[in-house]
Write a structure and sequence with these properties.
The protein has 183 residues and is an alpha+beta fold. It has two helices and ten strands, in the order H-E-H-E-E-E-E-E-E-E-E-E.
Length: 183
């Protein structure tokens, strides 16, 4: 390669760099998504079923063999692809949700669960818009914390959701900010 072609090569690389970076940006056919997270405690002993759980009670009873379910909090946040939102869960846990891409009825997510500054779980997955993802953390053999997650387009989710009215709204994190403990 001649010395005169080196500046040309740098110019080509400088021009192509933003084009290549644009391809790494999330591909979404839904401009804004609504993320809904419900936190509940389930106990083995027979007791009351929290009425705010509504029709989800049947689904919970099908999935788990607990006698009572109590909704602790319901949170909802609107976000765009690539924008992370954080939800505070019981027992000092924090769930970070980042929609990565959408296509038709599918949404790709990146999830990170933290206990303080320590990452407990990191995963990427695809799920149906409006589908239900359930995370279970056992505190003891007699009870468990259950977290349900739904992601959908704004017009698809009802304002209060079937699990009750939101008790708090999650705060979107800046794109440049990394989750606690991220390297």
């Amino acid at each position: 390669m001649s010395r005169s072609s080196i500046p040309f090569l740098f110019l080509v690389l400088a021009f192509c760099s933003p084009v290549m970076q644009g391809r790494a940006v999330a591909q979404c056919d839904s401009p804004v998504l609504s993320v809904h997270v419900d936190s509940m405690v389930a106990r083995e002993t027979a007791g009351e079923i929290d009425q705010r759980l509504g029709p989800e009670t049947g689904r919970l009873r099908t999935l788990f063999d607990y006698g009572s379910y109590q909704l602790l909090r319901a949170d909802e946040a609107d976000t765009s692809c690539g924008q992370e939102v954080a939800f505070f869960l019981p027992a000092g846990r924090i769930l970070h949700v980042r929609p990565l891409a959408t296509h038709g009825n599918l949404v790709a997510l990146e999830l990170a669960l933290f206990a303080g500054a320590r990452a407990v779980m990191r995963t990427q997955l695809k799920m149906m818009k409006g589908g239900l993802l359930v995370l279970v953390g056992s505190q003891s053999p007699q009870e468990a914390y259950i977290t349900s997650l739904r992601v959908d387009t704004l017009q698809s989710l009802p304002g209060t959701g079937p699990l009750g009215a939101a008790s708090a709204v999650a705060t979107p994190l800046p794109l440049s900010e990394r989750p606690i403990g991220a390297k």
